[in-house]
Amino acid sequence: MRMHISEIAEKIAICANCFFMCKDMCTVYAQTKVDSLSPSMHEYLLWLILEGREKYSEEVAKTIYRTCCSCLLCQSSCATRQDVPEKVRAARTDIADLDLTPRPVKDLDTSTRESHNPFREPHEKRFREITQTSHQKQSAKTLYFVGCTAAYHQPEIANAVITILEKAGADFALMKSEEWCCGLPLFELGLRETALSLAQHNSQFIRNAGYNAVVTSCPECCYMFRNVYPTLGFPLDAEIYHISEYARLLLENGRLTPRKRLLGRVTYHDPCYLGRHCRVYEDPRTVIKQIADSFVEMRWNRDKAYCGGSGVGYSILYPETASKIASRVLEESEKVGAEILITACPTCKSRFSQHQHPENLRVYDIAEALMHAL
Amino acid sequence: MKRDKPHSLLIHSKLADIVGDQNIITGELERTMYAVGRSWLARTWMAQGLPVPKADFIVQPETEEQISQILVLANKERIPVIPFGGLSSGMGGTLPLHGGILLDIKRLDRIKEVSDRSLTVRAEAGVNCWTLEDELNRRGYTSGHLPASFFCSCIGGFIACRGAGRLSTKYGKMEDMVLGLRAVLPTGEVVETRPVPGHATGPDLKQLFIGSEGSLGVVTEAVLRIHTLPEERRFRGVVFPDLHAGLEAMRKIMRASIVPCLARLYDEEETKTKVKDAWGVKEEGSFLVIGFDGPSKFVDLEESTALDICGKEGGRDLGREPGEYWWEHKYDDYYPTSKSLKEYRALLGGRQVGATTDTCASYEEIESIYLEMKETFMREFGDKYRGWFYGHFSHWYKSGAMLYPRWHLYEPPGGTGLVKLYWRVWATLVRIALKHGGVLNHHHGVGQILGEYMPEQYGAGFEVLRRIKKAIDPNGVMSPGVLGLNKEGT
Fold it and tell me: Which position among A50, A54, A252, A287 has the lowest Cβ density within 10 Å, counted as fewest Cβ atoms?
């Protein structure tokens, strides 16, 4: 079997021989302080495998799954801009090919294959709490792809997006029972087969329906559609927008006019997949500055923003570590005296809301914040 | 130390009572990674398929009290304990040659107090260097400690090996930065020294732990000096016709009580290779990057005075650009690239050998040490095994300087001959330093690698160290072998 890591052997060797330069930047390492989970060390482990001095095993698999939440924060401190999640994903794909994936990862795979979401929720409940409106027309050329977290855990975000689109007078459609998980968590976890089947399903539906724009409220869906589907052979042939990008356009075009202001000091958390992965930093800020009286940046922002700990299934697989990771963002927001923390990711919002945070700190998704201001 | 399975389970259970089972790592793979780190020696053993000495347990305490309990247990059970920081040691200081407990201090990571009035910070030993500096910068201060291991190492590790950063000429080494500390003795008692700027109350107890490399206890907390962020920090490049001229200029600058925050003088060989490749300075001779910081008026005065001295010694001012570029890219060299990867892979894959043999000596001797090291290395090793030797001087005092020689051999023998050669080069070079009144090491520590030469440096004084070790660590549980003490283990 040719290993996927063989295809990026040089990139792995670069990290394996590095002087631990991104170690304390690494989100997982910074919380666990377990050295074998730091980027250079797990890449050294892969290097040993490439050199035939170590073999994939269940113990290796446990390390490789726990070690990375794909936040890409390491890259922002790397002089040679290494993409560690790419290397971890290749190793996870090898591990999956060898059927060495840890049980919780297999469970997540099964859940997503069977019920099209990673939460073991019945598929028929996906749109149960989503508002149906007259603006939703199957003939519309714009699709709002709700995403798993907004559908099952944060329907208020989905409903905020729907309200925004309505107030802008946009006709749009929902996929409803045809909407399946975008597949990014599976893709990042090396579960390529399931990711492919999800991508195939979603892309076929979207292409057949002839949508020319797809709006997502989840940065992971946005990244998956924009950057990964084409590489898997399933381009959507549509413009992909995160709601923060779409809302900025609506505001610029005068289709939305904020009528109320957010009272209190606002800060913004850059979600990893919107920021570092999609490189969308300014659109959400532009939107927020139109609705906030007072805006303050956290010290670690844009490409250096702390991870919220929830990405691509990490919080499902490692909830305790994910919770600690999220606490760092809340501490940062507290340090700048924020009263309102806005993120642009349903999963991050979910994590921040669940985590204990200062009583006077309110947490919103950007769609909710904008909806309140309209 | 070999322990049977039931005994190991018992120890595990007792450790779990102290720190919780979730804070103990026993996996074979993880213990291997902790042992190997980026150490050339351990990675070579791995590459050669040799067994790597592993700790039995990696324990991650969160409090000083837990550390105390672990040490009491270790003493009772005669288990080696190796305090462990950022995994950046290249001297084998945390290599668990005798197994035991690797005591990872990085979860003691609170920055407890910053005093604006006294310019101090109190922080736990596991606080990462970068994290500390970031927090201080946020408040308008700096620690002045910017070592190569800035992004991965922690306060406890710096204290343990008397670390130095790039700005040490002005801001000092770790032994200068620590005002006071707390440490757990090998037998579990906690000692604290008062964080005063000076005292006349006997020997300075804190200095017993600074540089002890884990052999005399576990440093858990320190009060460090801090500084207000400078109004201005400015760098320049100067090139001298040769190294000797540069050394003379720097000696005179220090003598004139000019205190550059940074001064790094490269020999001719490093100037035409690494300095050219990494920082784009295409000059013959000996390159000096020099910097000053503080109030702008002071910086103006120091810089102009230093440049006058450099000029009198034949130095040619290259302006600010090469100096500023050097500073902005000071860490780039530590990131492997496609271009440098071949050498890294060979070095850390057990096919080539190289190291750094830094030392410190008086101005009467430091140049002689450099010249003799270079000539001897090339004669005995470099010509035979195709290698290079170059060096720079980067920590300056009024009475002497630090030499940072680096060497590399491209075609060493394979198999066990490789590691034997490694030891031979070390022995040869450090003995040259000792012969000229220098020391075994300036800021990386002694670890396991240089331990056997400690009696040669200290003479009768080494017996004093042995007695101190015996008095403080009667059962010899702490870091056996480190500093050349208690090499036989517990």
Answer: A252
Q: Distance (Å, rounded) from C-alpha B483 to C-alpha B462?
A: 10
Closest CB to B341 among A10, A24, A40: A10
Token pair belonging to B361: 């000596």
ipTM: 0.94
pLDDT at A139 over 90: no
- CB nearest B25 (choices: A24, A34, A48): A34
Paired strand residues for B192: B182
Using the structure block, give the residue that is written with the tokens 């990674």: B33
Of the partner residues A14, A25, A36, the one whose CB lies closest to the CB of residue B30: A36
Nearest-CA distance A246 → chain B (Å): 35
Residue type, A219: P
Return the domain boundaries, chain B: 5-106, 111-228, 232-334, 341-449
Q: Does B25 touch chain A (CB under 8 A)?
A: yes
- A13 to chain B, any CB pair closer than 8 A? The answer is yes
Fold topology of B111-228: 3.30.465
> How many Cβ pairs closer than 8 A exist between chain A and B?
102
Find the residue in A nearest to B90 (Cα).
A19
Does residue A67 sit at the B interface (CB-CB below 8 Å)? no
Question: Using an 8 Å Cβ cutoff, are B159 and B178 in contact?
Answer: yes
Q: φ and ψ at B5, to 5 degrees?
A: -60, -50
Map out the domains of chain A with their CATH numbers: 4-101 (1.10.1060), 105-249 (3.40.50), 258-373 (3.40.50)
For the stretch A187-235, pLDDT in tens is: 999 999 999 999 999 999 999 999 999 999 999 999 999 999 999 999 9
* Rounded Cα–Cα distance for residues B85 and B89 (Å): 9
Are B195 and B113 spatial neighbours (Cβ–Cβ below 8 Å)? Answer: no
> How many Å lie between the alpha carbon of B19 and the closest alpha carbon of chain A?
15
How close A294 comes to chain B (CA, Å)? 21
Domain B5-106: assigned CATH number: 3.30.43.10
User: Residue B266 pairs with which residues in a beta bridge?
Assistant: B392
Residues B152, A20: C-beta atoms closer than 8 Å = yes
What length does chain B have? 490
What 8-state DSSP symbol labels residue A309? Answer: S
Asked if CATH classification 3.40.462.40 holds for the domain at B341-449, the reply, yes or no, is: yes
- The tens digit of pLDDT for each residue in B140-179 reads 999 999 999 999 999 999 999 999 999 999 999 999 999 9
Question: Which of B28, B130, B138 has the CB atom closest to A24's CB atom?
Answer: B130
What is the dihedral sign for C-alpha B346, B347, B353, B354? positive
Contact across the interface for B104 and A21, Cβ inside 8 Å = no
Cα–Cα distance between B266 and A190 in angstroms, integer? Answer: 48
Residue B276 DSSP SS3: helix
Contact call for residues B309 and B256 (beta carbons, < 8 A): yes
Query: Quick one: which of A17, A112, A102, A117 has its CA closest to A67?
Result: A102
Coil vs helix vs strand at B338:
coil
Cα distances from A171 to residues A139, A207, A216, in angstroms, run 9, 18, 15
Which residue type, as a one-letter code, is found at position A285?
Answer: R
Judged by CB atoms closer than 8 Å, whether chains meet at B104 and A299 is answered as no
From chain A, pick out residues whose CB is under 8 angstroms from the CB of B336. Answer: 13-14, 17-18, 80
State the pLDDT at residue B1: 55
Q: Does B136 touch chain A (CB under 8 A)?
A: no
* Interchain proximity B34–A35, CB inside 8 Å: yes
CA distance A26 to A144: 33
